[in-house]
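For practice. Supply one:
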Amino acid sequence: MKELTIQRQRNNIKVSLIITTYNWPKALKKVLDSIQLQVEYPYEVIIADDGSDSRTVDLISQYKALFPCSLHHSWQEDSGFRLALSRNKAIAKSSGDYIIFVDGDTMLNPSFTKDHRLSAQQGYFVQGKRAYINEKTSKKLLSSDAIPHPLMQGLRHRDQAFRLSFLPNFITEKLKSHINRGLGGNCAFWREDIIKVNGYNNDFEGWGPEDLEFCQRLINSGLKCKSLRLKATCFHIFHKLSSTKMLDKNQQIYQNTVSNQLTRCKNGLEQSK
């Protein structure tokens, strides 16, 4: 009976896919192309844009007319690295009851959306994995119509590129009551759970563990993490690392959440609308 209830929940899910981006339309194009190849489209796609220029606006406009599902652009003024706020604004614009997050430099396996939907379960949020394409291969990929695959050259963490859907869940899904690393580029949450913890913490500015802190509040509120492997796979396009000059400050925000077992942030989703 429990399995039947879970299956019904999954069948009725309305999925929103949120893509974060900033001034890299070439990479975003590859992500959008990979969404068009999905065997199961999300209900809607929302671009969470942290202040890109007109090149990204033009790209999204080109895709809107022919895209297989609703495509929306959530833009905020370019005022430094404000990923948490950008995600919150996109969440506020979304209408799905289950939200998948990917980065604007991550190409998706054709079964990515389907795998996430079938892994959704009340009481859990989901974190997936990704393979990493090296700089040389990424440059070739961005200048062609090529699609990444597990056997391609220049791939790191190759084992995380294979999708083996025939394997049982006890192999592909690991249930965890704690996490030590956030992966905002491949994760999924029930909308009601995001609202309960007030979304991402807008106090994070600059690169830092905003995704880990968000997940920690979910765990503090009683949720568990479902870690996926060998399904919901994706490929990360190479780019140089972001500046870490704000990392110390951001680590303090995270440590405060851990030390005080916080379940909500004061400056989050509700303050982003």
